Amino acid sequence: MRRLSILLLCAASWLAVMPAQAQQRLKELASIQGVRTNQLVGYGVVVGLDGSGDSSPLTSQSLTAMLTQLGVQIPPGTTLSAKNTSPVSVTATLPAFARPGQPIDVTVSSIGSSKSLRGGTLLMTPLRGADGQIYAIAQGNILLGGAGASAAGSSAQVNQLNAGRIPAGATVERAVPTNLGQGDFVNVELQQSDFTTANRVVNEINRRFGLDTARAIDGRQIQVRAPVDSNERVQFLAQLENLAVDPAENAARVVINARTGSVVMNQAVTIEPCAVSHGNLSVSIGARNDVSQPGALSGGQTTPVQNADIAIKSDQGRVMQLAKSAKLSDVVKALNSIGATPQDLLSILQAMKAAGALKADLEII
């Protein structure tokens, strides 16, 4: 008994210091205004291909323009053989606070009819931002994955070979100015607009750093008073982004993939009594009043309980009766068991939503 008491005491102490699973760090719920990435894009030429290039006029024009810039004069009317060359698009993401000289990864994708970029080398390609300015220069050997063969050559695996990556293949040439707040304040922006979460974030910041440190502008933006000195501001933001906050529960949502029939629910979604007829399928959900009988000598009282009847029938005469709470998961499971197609499922759930029986946001992807 003494050992058991010690174990229970240790377990209680461990549970007391264990953080709630529902809590999330602020960095997982929000971002700092102004701290963002920027997309870069460029047009380049890949050379060194093993006969898998693009022989379209676009490739020939690109080679001619490139050689002209390098001082090589091409006689008029000359057609260049481009079976080892391919025009490509080059994309990259410029991270926040990137400085000149910093390497970044790039993705190279074929534009024309090239069959493969394996073994190719991207020539110097300027990468431009949305404003047309050059922010990075890319060049290097293309790395492709997913292509291989067995030692005996009896089996092979070939994936998409018209796109690849160049790790650290671009060098930043221009920095994007980033304003880490304005004056005495920085703005924290929630990833999803929610008044409850915004209020909880403000309360947690004020509890940790003092009253009047933060105030909510709306359901997404929170204004936070921060030190003016850059070093102190970074230290403050490091503490701020690691605050544990209890986010508000998300609204009930049902996501349906119309192509695959996948149904995803973020919580237990209930359905009110309704009846739906769709082709050879009929779905009926009704309420049933039952009685909860207490055990013998328990001293309890008999109480009325309202359960749900779910009946799904097809023209084949198959009927499934479910005596459970009217949860959407039960309905979807029953529909799948009788062979309902994704389109049937989509139509039935849309009808339930239109009738007001489905208490959730319905999103179709």
UniProtKB/TrEMBL annotation:
Q: Which GO terms describe its molecular function?
A: structural molecule activity
Q: Name one GO biological process term.
A: bacterial-type flagellum-dependent cell motility
Q: What is its main location?
A: other
Q: Where in the cell is the protein located?
A: Bacterial flagellum basal body
Does the entry feature the keyword Signal, yes or no? yes
Q: What are the record keywords, sorted?
A: Bacterial flagellum, Cell projection, Cilium, Flagellum, Signal
- Subunit-structure text: The basal body constitutes a major portion of the flagellar organelle and consists of four rings (L,P,S, and M) mounted on a central rod.
What is the name of the protein in this document?
Flagellar P-ring protein
What is the originating organism of this protein? Chitinivorax tropicus
The major lineage groups are:
Bacteria, Pseudomonadati, Pseudomonadota, Betaproteobacteria, Chitinivorax
Per the record, the gene is flgI
